[in-house]
Fold these 4 entries.
Entry 1:
Amino acid sequence: MSWCRTAARPSKALFRAAHGFGGVGMNVRCCGNEILIQYLTGLDYCRDKPVISMFTHSARKKSNCVKEVEKLQEKREKRRLQQQELREKRAQEVDVQLPNYEIMCMIRDFRASLDYRPLTGNDLIEEHRICVCVRARPLNKKELTTKDLDVITIPSKDVVMVHEPKQKVDLTRYLENQTFRFDYAFDENSTNEMVYRFTAQPLVETIFERGMATCFAYGQTGSGKTHTMGGDFSGKNQDCSKGIYALSARDVFLMIKKPNYKKLDLQIFATFFEIYSGKVFDLLNRKAKLRVLEDGKQQVQVVGLQEKEVKCTEDVLKLIEVGNSCRTSGQTSANAHSSRSHAVFQIILRRRGKMHGKFSLIDLAGNERGADTSSADRQTRLEGAEINKSLLALKECIRALGLNKPHTPFRASKLTQVLRDSFIGENSRTCMIATISPGMASCENTLNTLRYANRVKEFGISPSDIPFSQSGGGGGSRSELSPSYEVKGLTVDPEAEMDILQEGHANQLEVLEAQWGVGSSPQRDDLKLLCEQNEEEVSPQLFTFHEAVSQLVEMEEQVLEDHRAVFQESIRWLEDEKVLLEMTEEVDYDVESFATQLEQILDQKIDILTELRDKVKSFRSTLQEEEQASKQITPKRPRAL
């Protein structure tokens, strides 16, 4: 490289001289009164001065290397312009002030990489003895008002993905895409009719073939269980004709008219009851309290439950409206009218008075977490404990049905005890509809619901089940977007952990037997089996609490029964005392006989009332022990699938 300086203005002779030099090229730059001539091997860029380039005849042809560099530069500039336009377009479409704008963009980019193949009405209905499906509702008004994000993606007819927001140590946010597979997956556009077609409708024929069919709606409070089972809501009013209850009844009345079933001369009855805090109430009989007993043939009987004969679908709709108006509900953070009980609607076929088949449709209470029971008042605490226990028992009973296990732990809860005949027998079929909320605020509860549903019928999942588009748009490789079930925590040796759990269970049971006198019983054995099968979710303290609650419910029933008996006995005492007082009005009544009879009555009163008082004291002591046990609960997160 060489330089030539001159203070004069460049003349034609100078340009001719420069042109005559041998070399690949030359740039002449005007810098004030000076002219700098630089011989280069390529192009030169001037930052803030115009550049005059002069090349020799041989240098006018660019090399292939220079051309490729220029092409790369053009492509780079074009790509930068496109990205800038895309950013400006996104800024116009979305409010950048959203608190989770970054997460929303990640979810949108991930969804752009998927090839959507959702469930349609043209898909074939597969036959399952146990069918597990998931339904996601759209964002509700509250979630839209708070600008909550939709973190649920249903790319195909049997895959559900949850985009769980995470944060690294350096505060960088990222997504953990957790993937689950079920028999069917219904997105927010699915109607009740479509859900019914794939879930409950295939079960209707079962009850005409002398079978037992059961359909559950399970999920977080406010996720759409009552909407799915009972019908669409318009404000506080519910259209019962569009729920699975009514749709099932409609098909039952259509099927009973078929020639092969019409000749059976079947009658259709309906019952509607709820299970609240371990107690059963008849919703068609002014919420009368019912007793659940086992007869000599080990058949579970709900004593006093009224069966109403129905002749058409309209009769069923009237019963559903009556029952829904009586159902126990309460206000929670998720739903202003949250169902706090399990509602069981049954369609029963009878032939000459004997049961021919039964279809049980259950709207389960919200799946409260065990940790929530330690900070609430006693009533809410007992509600949560009973809900947790019944849901665990339900899961194990369905698993026992699917795996043909010799023993079904149906005595562990009132719900499974009432539905015992639905879990036993060759001709029993079950369907579970897990309803989930799409909001990011409900992400943890949504994952708990999906894990529960997955354990009912353990599905396998692989990256190939996720329908990525062939173009690969949206970024990320298949390995990067593969499903993740990792639950971070301490690593513990499984055998050592089991020993610790068994030792903890034994110690807690010894304390329980010493303090509360809990003896061996079928209910306790089933509860113990239930907790052993769910050691990952049930800590020894939580197991003790469940035992305490079960004992508390039994003692409460006993105290109420004894109090009722004392009340009836008191009426007889009053009549006997009235006779004694009338005897004293006679002039020559027998004083000794009067004193003897009065003493007998008083002794009876003292004995019975003392016994009742002791039971009430013990019951009050148990209430205090239950409260202490609730404060010792250490809930455990479910392990990775």
Entry 2:
Amino acid sequence: MAGGRVNVNVGVLGHIDSGKTALARALSTTASTAAFDRPPQSRARGVTLDLGFSSFSVPLPARLRPALPAPPPATGAGPEPRLQVTLVDCPGHASLIRTVIGGAQIIDLMMLVIDVTKGMQTQSAECLVIGQIACQKLVVVLNKIDLLAEGKRQAAIDKMTKKMQKTLENTKFRGAPIIPVAAKPGGPEAPETEAPQGISELIELLTLQISIPTRDSSGPFLMSVDHCFSIKGQGTVMTGTILSGSISLGDSVEIPALKVVKKVKSMQVFHTPVTTAMQGDRLGICVTQFDPKLLERGLVCAPESLHIIHAALISVEKIPYFRGPLQTKAKFHITVGHETVMGRLMFFSPAPDSFDHEPVLDAFDFSREYLFQEQYLCKDLAPAATDSGQTNEKAGQATDGHCPRQQWALVEFEKPVTCPQLCLVIGSRLDADIHANTCRLAFHGILLHGLEDKNYAESLLPRLRVYKLKHKHGLVDRVIDDYNVIGRSLFKKETNIQLFVGLKVDLSTGELGVIDSAFGQSGKFKIHIPGGLSPESKKMLLPTVKKRSRAGPGEVAEQKEGAEQREPAHHVTLSLSFKRYVFDTHKRMVQSP
């Protein structure tokens, strides 16, 4: 809250040419330096290329006044509080989706602008997905109703309203209000004398829908900067939205990506000078002796409150509209704040007995054990168990289609990023064909732990207890005595069996054995059975004598005709199961006690 105004950020999102900028212009009374496609590139191309900011204000509704903090006694009643609505005009072109993602992370309510003559389009759908991730409330605006034939206008609006209601039915925005407007009757070239239609009704609807988000002035100052420019004789202005904490005139701020600290010379909220501002406010900060070309967009914070990270542990949730699996080792475009970099992922889940545990979204627990996954587990992709009860490791390690309530990923960034803990993370495939009718947004999550050390693979990852379950199967070759047998078919000939000495194996007859030593050079090994073989097991393992038949045409007889071969009467199988921790530098094999 700055200068007696409560600020709420409303995103204006939609497909290209749906009239978002015209709508922002029709609603606004105050514009920022980058509003309404003012940059030369936007004017030349006739499309929005960057985030634009403008605002309007209305008297603060009575229903919202109880949420306001009480004014200090010394200040008295003060001016009548007003509700300031900051409009965040996002570009609609598919190639600029990363800018939209950055903009969506600072909004409290979203206006989805639909061209009433075209309905939902590809980028409309992507904006709806972003809205479901980033904000809690939605208003659908059916724009360009002036293009509908007057006699059939209401019928066409009703038909599109029903279509949009059906689209929203399976989203968190089910039942969201839908309102028709004509932000710029006659189109971009029409004279300004043409009055917009439905704008006052839209302002009334927004006032009804807006709720004051919880704002907290405590904690370290953090601001998401979206524009940076110089003013001759004044200095460099950084404009953005305060994500946390508060700031006052004369405070020092840091640009962490550049490791530069500057003192705040002056501050403005939409051209109005202020001395303080807090979380949620739209703010311009003026500093001196700073080249604006060094910071197009990024973060500004209290000195030494943010650090550069090279990797992160995140909680992950797949976006259901994304086609195909999320594979371990795959690369995605990772967006944190206004930064988008490539990152490689490794997915992991709770141990199977913890699949139903309550998700924890505010911290990462290094004391727990986690199960490595070849891909993110979801019901349509979770592998079914095989006849032996084991799952296909390459497809994932869930059984019976049962998926954990929470999953995680280690994200390794191709270049370092600056971001706070618990920030929103969105993964996408921005290199996909923008003309294909597919969702490019793959997953979203929360950054639970940032890895600041450049050598995190040696310093921190060994603390991450992610394991792979390994299962090997073999056969009992023959009995030595009541307490020892020879096994085969569990290892390859070249395997160093010494590494497995001491590991427990289960016999299909119920006994528990321990690998004692290698036996010969062919991959066979000796198993000691501390409890001894049962009489039934010994009977099953008694050798029988079989005669080799004559070799068939084209076959080579391994033994002479009539040679005898001694084999157990029944096959007794061996099962070896163990864990191997992914980041254990010693590659040890661990079994449960």
Entry 3:
Amino acid sequence: MVASRAIGSLSRFTASRTFRCTGYICRNFTGSSALRTRTHVNYRVKGDVAVVRINSPNSKVNTLNKELQSEFVEVMNEIWASDQIRSAVLISSKPGCFIAGADINMLGACKTADEVRQLSQEGQRVFEKLEKSTKPIVAAINGSCFGGGLELAIACQYRVATKDKKTVLGVPEVLLGILPGAGGTQRLPSMVGLPAAFDMMLTGRNIRADRAKKMGLVDQLVDPLGPGLKPPEERTIEYLEEVAVTFAKGLADKKISPKRDKGLVEKLTSYAMNIPFVRQQVYKKVEEQVQKQTKGLYPAPLKIIDVVKTGIEQGKDAGYLSESQKFGELAMTRESKALMGLYHGQVMCKKNKFGTPQKEVKHLAVLGAGLMGAGIAQVSVDKGLKTILKDATLTGLGRGQQQVLKGLNDKVKKKTLTSFERDFIFSNLTGQLDYQGFEKADMVIEAVFEDLSLKHRVLKEVEAVIPAHCVFASNTSALPINEIAAVSKRPEKVIGMHYFSPVDKMQLLEIITTEKTSKDTTASAVAVGLKQGKVIIVVKDGPGFYTTRCLAPMMSEVIRILQEGVDPKKLDSLTTGFGFPVGAATLVDEVGVDVAKHVAEDLGKAFGERFGGGSLELLKQMVSKGFLGRKSGKGFYIYQEGVKNKSLNSDMDSILESLKVPPKPDVSSDEDVQYRLVTRFVNEAALCLQEGILATPTEGDIGAVFGLGFPPCLGGPFRFVDLYGAQKVVDRLRKYEAAYGNQFTPCQLLIDHANSSTKKFYQ
């Protein structure tokens, strides 16, 4: 519920577009000169309705920071004190955002749980005053309404929202390792019912406006307007305001009731929730699901259940007190610090630090219509890029085009696209067997098989037809980019763009630069990746780059552990129990045994004995028998279409038995098995930073979590070292080094951090 959603779900916190409503909120003001100097919140009076405008300066989104909260309280006090004002509307000046949530930097600045608790109680007091306001307050929601923004909205007497794709509501605090701390845990259950409230708070799920209306989270919907004399966004905001003002007047005049008529199902659910036995069963069932899905590694979900239960069983006052206390406790946990670190890292990795490219990429060509090539094409046409998909065979091309169409059809089924939008997007794709149209390409992404001679051939063919400004990018997981670029006439235009499978679901894009890659080429690659919706890390060239290089020694250790007699199911259980979303043996099957063998051979040659561990013979025998993993139906497990629970492949027993090695008792406990895998990963990540493959620890953590499934609750390898302790990591490595040799020798960077208590990757 949480661990499985933590990777990737943070993306919705990122900003939308900027909008300035010049001169609008600054006219017809009443009040003192102090009012006119406000920078975050202002208001004007329309008849007897105060229209309160929220607009954080120099920011694409509104966040509930101290300045905004202070000005909001001032404004509301003036409204409550005025005899001329009978109701109010709260609206944002930013079309893509109502309020994106509280400013989590406020939490980062707190040193103790008590300081965080006080922040929570301040928010509770402000929103309780809103809830008890004798003057009706209408929240007019357009765009993102998350966290503290939704808590503010549900404290109002009425909510009107635009029926727009960009209007989404949610309480994603659980994804940051905390809980809604401004009354949300107490108001949501009574507003949408206990089951729906638990679902929202325990998953951090986004709720679209139409769904929010059905749930009772929103009272009225407003259709967005198209273009006119003004841009559509501006017209929609003005229309939303008019509608909200009308409802505010109606509420003040008692012509509209703030109480919503509930349907039969809601009434029955509400009746059932009034029965103590039923409630206890709900609590029990939800706790069981949370334990099963989080393995107890994430404390926030259980605290959310506890706080909600306290409010329902002991009353709202006890609930609010429990909410603020648990909010403070959670903000100080390692898990929260790790998850917040990932949030900050993701924000950083969604910016182009290389500047604006000289020429925008409008026409893209993808070479190879296999799983990866078709995936790259899908995430490109999806974002409006004119894309050519080229393959060597008609069969391969047809399969690739069908994959793109299936991905778009899935979105139609989920109602995130209309059939008209799907057809329009698909029209951006041109499938072909030749290089026609490549003379207009601004970028070519090559996604052919991992064979250097093949990549050399297509690079030469492409360079004969593309324009001078065109960037050539190779989607390779391990082949050094400088070797690919060796045959290029313009190596400054060659770059690596390593996508992860499935491309439409995996958020990470690893961009690889050589010493000859120009800054403008890098800027173009980053710009395309951002347009495709990716989280981007930029690393230096080298065998395995960063992600594959970190994964390879861990995979080698996986093979050794299997040879030592740990069966695949137990190994999977140990790794998921540590926080990995996919078990280690299953991961080999998912990656592909042939791919794992190919990478192990290449990196083994590059790094020698240090990348040793398990016998490569195990992978060779699996490949020879056709056990390639999920794609062939057999690997360590047997995979059958439509069968969810996979069974062990008994044909693997003889292979494992023939290659069995005796385990070493001192380093073979369940905990040791877990730490042998994790420390090899962490040590290699630190070595990449030490050698300059990585520019920053942040990119290392983002790459590990979003690309390789490193446990989000640990925050990535570098955050893990900071929180667990560098000395403890080095001690673990030394222990395993004594048993297995230089494969566990700690790198100098980790030793330096262990020798100095003040050295941290994150200050």
Entry 4:
Amino acid sequence: MLTFKTFSFQRFAVLYSIISTLQVAVFCQNSSCEQAIAITSWVLDQADTNTAAQELLGEAAIQYEEQQPSTSDLIQVMPQLPWVAFQVQALLGATAYGGAEPGEIFNVVNRLNASDRLGNLTQYEDNVLDVFDIWRDSWVDLANRLVATASNDASQLSDEAKASMLYRASQYYFISQWPFPVSEGGLRAAENSTKAFDDYLTNLKTSRGYTVEYLDIPFSNGTVSVDLPGVFITPDPTKKLPLVILNTGTDYPKEAIFPFGGSQSLENGYAVLIFDGPGQGQVKRQEPYMPLVPDWETVIESVLSEVKTNENIQRYVSLDDIVLWGVSLGGYLVGKACSVLPKDSLKACIVTPAVVSMIPPYANGLIEKLFVPMAKLNSSDIPEGYAEALQNSTTVVDKILRPLLQECDDDSAARSIWTTMFDASPDELIDVLPDYVYSIMDYAGIVTSNVTEIIDATYLGYQGVLNFTNTDISTTKIPILVLSGTQDNLMGGQEEEYFNQLPQDIQDVSKLVNFTAETGGALHSQSGALQTQAEAVFPWLKETLGNAAPSQPSSSNYQRSDAFALIAVLISVLLHLF
């Protein structure tokens, strides 16, 4: 979460937290729209004008941040910019399966460290634009060079080597767009990433004998109909193999999520299907646009229908042995789908992370840093009835946050409050709207880099998110592997609660794996430790699938050894020195 620079800038930091919180609200009539507007207006006014309130907010912000695990605990790359550390950690993990090279990552980090413009960088929101162009240009330059070399017929490179370069280029193009993925450059980088990934697959067909099928999966949300883009890959077209369907979340399209389960599955002898669902990847960039849908089981049903009716896939897949793997928000979506889908629809599910409620990861920052501190003011300074709503996280959610969007009309003062909190110049707005803000636009059905449209998109987006209700885990009928990162400060912390709510007969054939800092897999979705993650996933799949599991990893001319995992660790240690 952002910290406050100055209290004159506080509304924008507050906005960041409010955006996080409103993602998880569900329908509630415990309080009127008018009361929610009145309390929120009073809280924001106190934050701007009341010295005592400002002191309480400052103390609460420090206390809250001190309690949060940092995404840079495992790797120190400019800890002032947590998104840099997280993405570098993710790329280091991808080296185990060819998605990046440690030396190439280190070169970009050196360019960042060498910039004289970073000398006074103390907070994320101070100089994010100064570092963003260096970050973006470094990755794009690297990816362009790799693509140019791989595309040069005079290079004398093997198809295997070209595939390696194009795979890395695809990941570098994608990573270059952070933290502004809907900027003009970000959208162009996403298109380049898709193109490089497709060329990578083309070379895989030649170099390894893989079979690749591109899919257009019909899907309708009842209002809009689209074709969901997908890719099916089998490492051994002479056999019917178990299938892993990889389900991404909001920010990562199918090409970028591939290192988080796709590469590992192929190396372990499984066929793989990746796809962009509603509000994801290419679906965000095609007409008609379709936002994320809350009944995600309907998306999975459409994907499964395509698998079971497409003759080009049927011949390669053991249809009784299909595994659904959700990553990041995909962990929540897959967990929700697997709680509804019938037992015979899937052989197993994998979630990283598992989520019971979206309120703790998204609401606690706002509640603890803005609303609850106001209850500590002198009682004579708090209007009658407000203290009850401000006393704890539950009352804030029920009496303020839910009614603000659920019960207030678009033309009410609630919309004006929202716009007022965005009342900044475009440059200031960009400073305080990191990647998370753009992610929520998936829920609104809007793709834009226009500042005014972003304000509308975030408001509409969180109205849409209100339909994403909590998962009824007790109805799950499919064995599930729950992967937990103990330092996942994005969505983690609920995995044990999730596992304990599974029906006993399903819990008996499921498993919970906790990755601590010592394993290197403690971050969100085991970012940075994908080989370590695979060492937990595939033994469990073999036990769950029994004789249907691949007897041994598929043959490949391109096997990454454990040495690359060691290199990633060594690079991580070296980066601590910078």
